[in-house]
Amino acid sequence: MSRHRNVKNLDIEDGLDDYDYSAEEEEDDLSPEDRAMMARGVAEVQAALGVEAGKVTVAQIEESLWYYYYDVEKTVNYLIKKYINPPAPKKKPPPPQQPNGEFATSVFAPGMPISPQPRQSLASLFWDMPWGNIPKHRETTFIPPHVPRGGLLGGSGAAPKMSKLQALAAARKKKAEEKKAGEKKAEERAAADVEQAQSKLKELSVNETTTTSSRGTASMAGAFGRRLKTAQSAAQGRVPLAANEPGLTGSSIPSLSTSATPSTLSLSEDNRPIDKAPQSSFAQTLFASPLEKDSSRKRKLPEYFALYPDLPQSVIDAFSKPSPDDIVLQAQAKAGKKNAAPAQPKKKSTATALSTKQASAAQVTDKVSELKISDAVLPKSRNLDVPAEYTKSQQKKSASFVVVGHVDSGKSTMMGRLLLDLKIVNERAVDKLRKEAEIIGKGSFALAWVMDSREDERAHGVTIDIAMNRFETERMSFLILDAPGHRDYIPNMIAGASQADFAILVIDAKEGNFEAGLRGQTYEHIILLRSMGVFRLIVAINKLDMVNWSRERFEEIKDQITGFFKRLGFQLDKIAFVPVSALKGDNIVNRSTDPAASWYAGRTLIQELEASDPKPRELRKPLRMIISEVYSTMQSPVTILGRLEQGCVQVGEKLLLLPANQMAYVKAINTNGGEPVDWAVAGQHAEIALDGIIQEYVSIGDVVCDPNHPVKVMKEFTMKALAWDMFWPMPVDVHRGRLHASGKVTKLVAVLDRATGAVTKKFPQAIRKGQVARIKVEVQDTVPLEAGQRVVLRRGGETVAAGLLE
Ligand code: GTP
Ligand code: MG
């Protein structure tokens, strides 16, 4: 029973000596305090159920109490819904909702606690979900988000519309599938097109003089350009696109440079300095099949198709033949023109017998062939000295903070209150939320809904993913990262903590709730913060309105938590305690006016936030940014959001994306949801519109870096890890910010002395709780990592170890 083990063996500083291994064996035994609380809880639940108590067993009551951390009210509600008045079984469960296009997990069934965690055995863990017979409505679907959450940088909680590019991609994919069935037909169509193109050409009768007029050439260019595109599309059996297709950015569709004079016109390749996989607009327009990042496969394909490793061979073959236009151009070349068809000059053409009329047409086409087909002009890098620009700009300091704590401690309510009292959201908006919340019987969550914008979050009254929001004070600008408290969403909390300069730890002061939190995620979050290098903490002891602003309760909690901090090596002068009521708005922005709270004269929460300095910024180091969101914007179908961990970025700059190992260009940057900016620096969260890359190469958790100083992509790494629980060579999940990878501990190199780091034992068989060890970890797919980064290892929903990469 790991929750209990965490508390029993809280003092990891004490190491092994006083580690009680008997506790491991009596896996499911309760501590005396737990036993007392359990007995009291069972009695209270039975009393509350009255005559209905006979319909549930003591074991069921205990199980629910355990899950709800002895919350009698929630337990009673659950038991009634589950056993006493279960809802009539429906014939067909409704399909799961997928709000906001984000991952919709359907582990929640109405009236059921979230992911119940029976404590008896692994087998009973899935008590209601037999393997191989998972009801359709409970299967989990992952859909990548398309917009930033929580209103950051212009995003909203509303379900995103499918972008035109996405709609186009979906349409193309469908077409590609249909094409498989009708490949033969397509080939015939292509052949027919060749004939048609040739016969059309024969009919061409163009007066030489028209070529001298730039106007004439321009219109020809347009016509030719359209023809070229239509013919190519037709040959592929795909929907032809106009060059000005709405919804596509300039980079995705070639534009014909009509202003150029005939003599300077050239039909050139995309001439941007892209190092890898020249992602021409043509290719991007024609293909949309999902990519496999399998480099070995890519190498076997012709260079042009390296981007599209899973194209059917027939499609590749179709492209290995000259297109109808190529045939025409080659024919023209044969007729004596120099510049025709530079791309495939040696292919045999069937169109050999062109008339002189055609030759003159070819002359026109010769000029036209030099038409420059290029993507929209990229903003050029101004090669700014960004750190110097940043100093000159005298911007306000910016800091991001993560809000952590046990489930239901009031984190989201507190942030909603903060934004309301700072007038970032207005009273009317909150009133509207309150009305909506009351409709589903969750009126008390109205303020939390300011942050919790997902439908599933609102329906269940829990935060699931990190929600972000911004606000400014006179001195600083802040980014809120509101983390989930529920144990199932610890990876999201890790992602939030990895982007934070400091943290607000929220503790529920209500009798019993603080204690339950200690056994639960209050303690786990504290250790995770420590492991991730977050040392500045503001401890907001919340819900003091529920204990009548008892100073004793506040001091009691403060003393206990301070003990943990000391043992975990936090510097106490970096930790502040504030007694608050998020619901009533006491000591958040405004000082409490409750006479019972008059004993507190210290800083309010906002004053503590303003007194918190961000971590030092490393602006002169090479760029490092972990992608936390990928979505489409007006500026680019591939727009990323993330925090710059170090270095700077500017518009026009070339970036390397790992592990895809692809280059991209910075088209636009946005750091505050307002006007685009020219640059961003370490510590800021930046939204970057990319060019020269397709979305399939970009994933949440990927790293963006300076191509001249790339991060290493590795399959195995060595780390110095502090064991949270006993571990040995075994499978683990590796967490680094938003990056989550499957892996395994492959080797236990040595146990180290906690103080000096000297080796105390080589090649141990297992690492025991509290020990520090050097270990080797292998990941399934290569991941970009480098020395000094903090990594958390988890297994089966429990944190096993955390530490630094060596
Ligand atoms: P998760 O994100 O799911 O971990 O929860 P949370 O910590 O964000 O808690 P949330 O803000 O959703 O609040 C949970 C419940 O606590 C809601 O019903 C709130 O109204 C209530 N609550 C929060 N703060 C206070 C407070 O200061 N006083 C009282 N009485 N209730 C509060
Ligand atoms: Mg919350």
From TrEMBL:
Q: Which GO molecular function annotations are given, in alphabetical order?
A: GTP binding; GTPase activity; translation elongation factor activity
Q: In Gene Ontology terms, what is a biological process of this protein? A: regulation of translation
Q: Which residues fall in a compositionally biased region of kind Polar residues?
A: 206-217, 278-287
Cell compartment(s), UniProt: Cytoplasm
> Its catalytic activity?
GTP + H2O = GDP + phosphate + H(+)
Instruction: Return the annotated region ranges for Disordered.
Output: 1-31, 165-220, 241-294, 333-359
Please classify the protein's predominant subcellular localization into one broad category: cytoplasm
Q: Where is the composition biased (Acidic residues)?
A: 12-31
Instruction: Quote the biased-composition stretches of kind Basic and acidic residues, using this chain's numbering.
Output: 175-192
Q: Which InterPro entries match?
A: GTP-eEF1A_C (IPR054696), HBS1-like_N (IPR015033), P-loop_NTPase (IPR027417), T_Tr_GTP-bd_dom (IPR000795), TRAFAC_GTPase_members (IPR050100), Transl_B-barrel_sf (IPR009000), Transl_elong_EF1A/Init_IF2_C (IPR009001)
Query: Domain Tr-type G, which positions?
Result: 396-617
Matching CDD domains: EF1_alpha, HBS1-like_II
Compositionally biased tracts (Low complexity): 246-268
The record's subunit annotation is: Component of the Dom34-Hbs1 complex, also named Pelota-HBS1L complex, composed of dom34 and hbs1.
The family annotation for this protein states: Belongs to the TRAFAC class translation factor GTPase superfamily. Classic translation factor GTPase family. EF-Tu/EF-1A subfamily.
The protein's name: Elongation factor 1 alpha-like protein
Originating species:
Chaetomium thermophilum (strain DSM 1495 / CBS 144.50 / IMI 039719) (Thermochaetoides thermophila)
